[in-house]
Amino acid sequence: xxxxxxxxxxxxxxxxxxxxxxxxxxxxxxxxxxxxxxxxxxxxxxxxxxxxxxxxxxxxxxxxxxxxxxxxxxxxxxxxxxxxxxxxxxxxxxxxxxxxxxxxxxxxxxxxxxxxxxxxxxxxxxxxxxxxxxxxxxxxxxxxxxxxxxxxxxxxxxxxxxxxxxxxxxxxxxxxxxxxxxxxxxxxxxxxxxxxxxxxxxxxxxxxxxxxxxxxxxxxxxxxxxxxxxxxxxxxxxxxxxxxxxxxxxxxxxxxxxxxxxxxxxxxxxxxxxxxxxxxxxxxxxxxxxxxxxxxxxxxxxxxxxxxxxxxxxxxxxxxxxxxxxxxxxxxxxxxxxxxxxxxxxxxxxxxxxxxxxxxxxxxxxxxxxxxxxxxxxxxxxxxxxxxxxxxxxxxxxxxxxxxxxxxxxxxxxxxxxxxxxxxxxxxxxxxxxxxxxxxxxxxxxxxxxxxxxxxxxxxxxxxxxxxxxxxxxxxxxxxxxxxxxxxxxxxxxxxxxxxxxxxxxxxxxxxxxxxxxxxxxxxxxxxxxxxxxxxxxxxxxxxxxxxxxxxxxxxxxxxxxxxxxxxxxxxxxxxxxxxxxxxxxxxxxxxxxxxxxxxxxxxxxxxxxxxxxxxxxxxxxxxxxxxxxxxxxxxxxxxx
Length: 641
Ligand code: NAD
Fold this sequence. Notes:
Elements: E1 4-8, E2 12-17, H1 28-43, E3 49-54, E4 59-61, H2 66-74, H3 78-96, E5 102-106, E6 109-111, H4 113-118, E7 123-126, E8 131-133, H5 147-153, H6 158-165, H7 171-177, E9 182-183, H8 189-197, H9 203-208, H10 216-227, H11 233-241, H12 246-255, H13 260-273, H14 280-294, H15 300-309, H16 326-333, H17 344-348, E10 352-356, H18 362-371, E11 375-379, E12 390-391, H19 395-399, E13 404-407, H20 412-422, E14 431-434, H21 440-452, E15 456-459, E16 462-463, H22 465-471, E17 474-479, H23 482-495, E18 496-503, H24 507-535, H25 540-547, H26 555-558, H27 582-599, H28 604-619, H29 630-635
Parallel strand pairs: 2-3, 3-5, 4-6, 5-7, 6-8, 7-9, 10-11, 10-13, 11-12, 13-14, 14-15, 17-18
Antiparallel strand pairs: 1-2, 16-17
Helix pairs in contact: 1-3, 2-15, 3-14, 5-6, 5-13, 6-13, 13-16, 18-22, 20-21, 24-27, 24-28, 27-28
Bound molecules: nicotinamide-adenine-dinucleotide.
Residues 356-362, 379-382, 384, 395, 408-410, 414, 418, 436-437, 462, 465-466, 579-580, 584 line the site of nicotinamide-adenine-dinucleotide.
């Protein structure tokens, strides 16, 4: 079962954490999936808002998956954690800066990484069971995931108190401290979510909100101010130790469980953040200074060991006497220089893309890259261009100085020709990303030529058609080295919803021609079935209603119905203007049969589909029409065999 459910209605994107047995603790994979969905929806004009919720009663999200961190850290691999935090913090910043409302429903525990997900949106909703906390000092970390921003903005010194003690806030406390916006009884949540998914405005949230019971935390504030106003952890401890109030005793008990180094650094970070330059980027930058060093120089591995590995709850902290020297704090919070956190999207916007082939597919793909902030310069022999794309006068002009050259061309011969023109002018180490559908041999030949030119290469043909290209929901099937695939990944995330790394160069094309052999055959089967239905006097709409929900369903029927006026909008509704041209399908079927011959695979349906499309394009009137125009072809004919 998946750990996360991501789906969308006509108006809303919805992300549901679905790991209730692990209190919805967030894994690295979940983090990347959430980011990809948010990127997609940010560009999708149909999506007005995003709902974030979670399965189970116990927790929205109890934190990050620290077991994963422990394993790698104990093996001496600190890079995994550093990468995880950098990616997680980028996601936290993305939620905070998101251009559309993000509404989170925070039942049960929302802690650590859960705060990073659930407490940076525009509408943070708590209910009766909500318990929110930043308990990181208990495992030797400082509050992170952008939590220090909220703590620095909390009233008075409440941030220092919450950050060092890990105090669990109830719903009213969370509103008081700035971790939540609205209290709404939990039995009203499902109805509210359904309305939001149906297109209701976020104003319904305000109207459903109620006043929670009084905040216990607010009652504690006078004592918090008295004890937490000092310069550092030692001042806080000194005043607490000279007070015999219950508050002082309880607070000392909480502080004595936690890592002294982490607590001292938490206080220092909050002091540095408060002031006119406070921002999410600054908060995350300071948090990352600590987390980057936390395994090697901090108490994190010992903290995780005591909490969840040996479960003895007696961690051996550094500075166990609570005397943390100022130099130790400074060392943990020194700037990281070239390793400093970059919120990578910012880096992506500096990427130069040379886009070659701005046809039916290429133009909307290039426009999506430009919309995401990348600098795109495009070239097409037909002189076409795309929104937001600078027009080049030649392929060489588009490729010179590009970090990534992306091609979307009609066939392998043209790809080879373009590659021989652009590879000599590309920067060493740059990426040539070909998304055309071509023969496996051409993909491999261009991969070799790229290697010779010290350029990375990925063949990544796509599925999803012009609709997917425009909506940024393509599927990419990629061949190339793991490193080159990772270089291409941010572009896949912008232009598509999924990218599968299929293997070595050429593997993407192999997957594509197998997929399209199925597509060609099912489109023919769908068209001939409609023609038969016509002759049997069956209404086309009824035929669609039955088949689209029965065992005859397929992408050709359900998403790209060849009958005009039936099913979702498709080229059939536009007089079969392509879409996906019949000659491109002919090309793909030719590639599948060429490949099948080379490896001696028996593909009779593919061979028959090729023969039919060849006749349609070369002998009949199929050229220039969409490949679904097989339907009028069949309806005009009588039985021939
Ligand atoms: P298209 O014919 O609309 O676009 C190809 C573009 O390449 C044209 O604008 C053409 O002028 C340009 N071109 C040709 N030679 C060139 C050169 N030497 N330099 C620069 N530009 C050149 O085709 P499309 O539908 O956009 O498809 C492009 C690729 O994507 C094909 O390989 C196709 O098989 C594949 N594909 C298409 C679809 C679809 O639904 N259309 C779906 C998946 C994959």
